[in-house]
Structures are given as C-alpha cells and as structure tokens.
C-alpha cells in the first residue's frame, strides 16, 4: 500500500473529540437553505417558514431552550398557547407554526441533529369552520362602477388589478407575478405560471375582464412605465416666479429641486432628467420612479397590492377588505351561478377538493329557494 493510500486506524478504545452540538439559531439557516435548494420551495414559502421559526426562536430564548433536544412536546404545546393568548394569533396561524416546527424537526432528525421530533406528538388545534368573507355580486358591481369613473393611468391600473382579482380569482402573489407573456388575448386565456405548489393553470379571459385588462396593457401600462421622473411645481405665492422640477433620486435622502423660469423649460428639464423606460415583464407595475427613486417599473408586490386594495376598495364597500377577498368573491360568483365544486377547485388551483368545500355551505339562490320551499 502506498503512503498516500494509507488509512489512519483508530483503536476501538480511542474516542474522538465530539464536536459542539449546534444550537437552534445555528440550525434554522441550515434548514431554510436545505428547504430552498433541496426541496425547491418557493421564495414565499421560505419567507413564511423563516418568519415562523424566528418567532419560535424568540420563545425558545425566553424559555432558555438552546439545543434541539432540549425541546419537549410540552414546550411546543405551551408555545401554541403563547401564540393564541399572548400574540393574539388565530387557530389557523398557530397550526401553521406547528406545521413549520414539524418540518424543521423532521429535517433535524433526518440529518442526525436531533434524537426525535417533539412537534410530532402535539395535536393540531381544532379549526374554526367559518364561511369565507367575500363581496356580494351587487357589491362587486358597485365597486367596478365606481372605479371605472376614476380617470388617470394609476386609477386604470387599479381598476385592471381589481377586475382581474374578481374575474380570474388569482392569489395576491399570482397578481404580483403576472407577466405580459401570460396573457393571450387572441385565445382569451390567462395563464398562471408556477402558482402555489409550483403548479400552472389556465383561466378564461372573459369579455368583462378583457374590456378592462386589454386597454390597460396596450395603452395605460406604457404610460406608467414611461412616466416622467418627479413632478413640475408652479410658482408658489410669496416664493418668487420660478417653476420647480422636484424628484427623488435613488440612494439620496433629500429631494432634488431644479429651478426654471417657464413651464416649458421645467418640462424640458423633467424630460431630460427622466431615465429611459425600463423593460419590465410584469403586468401590474409601479410608476417609472417611485418613492425616493426606487422600484423603477418593478411589480407592485404583494404588500403594495394589499395597500392598493385597502385604499381603493374599502371606501366603496365600507368594510375591511384584503386581496384574498377578491379571490373569495370570484369563487362566490362561480358558486352563485351554479358552478360545481370541481370547477371551482380547478379555477382556484386548490390541490385538494377539501379546501374548496368551504364554498359548499354558501347560500346560493337555488339553495335558498329550495330551503324556502320546505319552510312555507
């Protein structure tokens, strides 16, 4: 045997120095990287699991739980109570945290970093069987009528986004990630690419949706993408005769102000300061230059969509609204008009029909008429 091929034999009586066991905060990043690159989960899923685990790490620090094997199922049961009582989380949120912890400890056991999975012995909290909150069809019609009356590129974008939510039932993340290549107006098809669970699906672009979405894509969206930077301000009383071009620049904390003697000169300066339009594949975009010069022609994003829906929908319907209510409203319209649960499941992209059964208990006009007949 050559000297290079020689192996070091450790006598049975010799014990190798053991490595220091990793702490919980050290193992969470390892799990999230494995979850991302090996399990190939979506960025939204990784972010959700990361948030849940950071919350648990805060609890574990307070409970002086440093290692994975320090945690017992009693600790996790107490953690669920902490989420419900101290943080005010819903049962669904607490169960989501439990699901995250089960996945985390399965990874640790698989990698030999923990002896067992304490979360596996914890019971799921009983779910509340509540009907989904939605906008009735009269509320939807009132909302669309009000939004159609508002003028301006941003208002037309808002109308197109809300209409897409109501007549295609996209999730908030799917609205944010919708791209121009996913729309086929000739074939009347909207494609959801890599939706939840990395699944694709196709939805019809119905005439009511096309009448709003197509003009937005072909006429209004180019105005948003090529919108001039900043704004022109007319001379203010007591501040001289100058016009001002005001804009934010990325990376700076103060506004840039340029003076001009005429409006024509100010608009010429504004055009010269505007960067060339940025190519963007996304359907729903911000203006060319957003707050402090950031987010140029980028998608609105899920948080932006959440605030947009609150801003434009809540004043009309007079109640709290979130983007998922548009999706529930889409399913409600289907159910009200007689669609069976399998059609609704396929349209929404639910992995299991059990998720879609929440719409089975809704009082459709046909069902109400049948009940009324037996009560007379």
Structure description:
There is one protein chain. This protein has 376 residues and is mainly alpha-helical. The chain folds into three domains: 24-121, Tyrosine recombinase, N-terminal domain (DNA polymerase, domain 1, Orthogonal Bundle), CATH 1.10.150.130; 137-225 and 298-364, Intergrase catalytic core (hpI Integrase, Chain A); 231-293, no CATH class. The protein contains 14 helices and six strands. It has helices at residues 24-37, 43-62, 73-86, 91-110, 137-148, 153-168, 172-177, 207-225, 263-273, 302-317, 323-336, 341-348, 353-356, 365-375; strands at residues 183-184, 189-192, 201-204, 231-233, 243-247, 256-260. The strands form two sheets. The protein has a three-stranded antiparallel beta sheet with strand order 1-2-3, with no helix packed on it. Strand 2 and strand 3 form a beta hairpin. It starts with 23 loop residues before the first helix and ends with a helix.
